[in-house]
Amino acid sequence: MSAEIIGNYATAIFLLIGSGFALVGVIGLLKFNDPMTRLHAPTKVGTVGIGMLLLASIVHSVVLGETSIHETLIMAFLFVTAPISANFIAKVNIHKRNCETPPTPPRDDTWSTLNSPDEEPLDPT
Amino acid sequence: MTRAVHWLLPHPLLTILLALVWVLLQNKITAGMAVFGLILGIIIPRATAIWWPDRPKGIRMGKMIAYSVIVMWDIVVANIQVAWIVLTVPNAKLKPAWIVVPLELIQPEAITVLAGTITLTPGTVSADLSDEGHSLLVHVLHTDDPEAVRDEIKIRYERRLKEIFP
Questions:
Q1: Is the dihedral of CA B108, B114, B117, B123 positive or negative?
Q2: Closest partner residue to A102 among B24, B98, B122, by Cβ?
Q3: Which of A87, B47, B61, B156 is 20 to 30 Å apart from B136, CA to CA?
Q4: Strand B124-129, strand B97-102: pairing
């Protein structure tokens, strides 16, 4: 087996793993029925799913002889931005009260999302 | 001399990072692009210096790299666990939970890294910070023992971050 064949097989395997995780993420998005649990599905696609597809892209470019590594940049930017969008969606869920009410924090008064004048207190007792 | 270097390079790590990103964007390593990246890496930190007056100093880079490797590994392991939960656990048996992580970290940068780590690890999403920044609200997809998850976050990530950001 030459290096090219091994490289092609590796590309195919990485693509399959990546798309498999993306598929599981989509199944999770459709299956769960609560906004907060549904939020967990995209975090999976955003990490290993995309990571494996980008790894496949790198391996393929090496096999073709035109090594390209700027896929690592895509990964880095995704890792920086993905938690922020997830955090924003979580904050919207807390605001609109379409999830279970979070417990009160032990040391401070309330959560910063709920800390606005027109918001009802978390626990009236 | 030191003052001149400090004036020119207020943030040496950012300079290196910007040069590296520039070279990666070009997607091929040539001397001209590396020099241009370095020039950008010197101009941008100087131009933006007024926006980060209280940046943390003395970050331990070696420990930061070790931390990144641990997080990468955890992401892969947790992905497989969560994929298994998605495929096998029916909705009725799912036990999502809010957990409250009391924070010992003080620096905003360290808390940001911790919150990002928690979100990137599948199965947990950091949702909110308490109004004075003393605890972090985390949502867990499926757990039998919320306190164990909280302790794992504290032992595995927060303790290491406390060493990274002195």
A1: negative
A2: B98
A3: B61
A4: unpaired
